[in-house]
Amino acid sequence: xxxxxxxxxxxxxxxxxxxxxxxxxxxxxxxxxxxxxxxxxxxxxxxxxxxxxxxxxxxxxxxxxx
Length: 66
Known about the structure:
about 0% strand
C-alpha cells in the first residue's frame, strides 16, 4: 500500500525493509533466520544514511539485485 501511495506522489521517496525475527523469537523446533537487535539497528541506520546520501533511487523492483 505504501509503494502504491508513493506512486501517486512523484518525487516522494519511500520503501519497505523486511527485518528477520529476533533470536529470542525463534522456536527451536522450527529454526528460522534471526538477527540481533543491535545488528538490525545498525542495518536500518546504514540504509537510512544511504538513502539520505543519494538523491535518486535505482529503479530496481521485486527484490532484484544488480
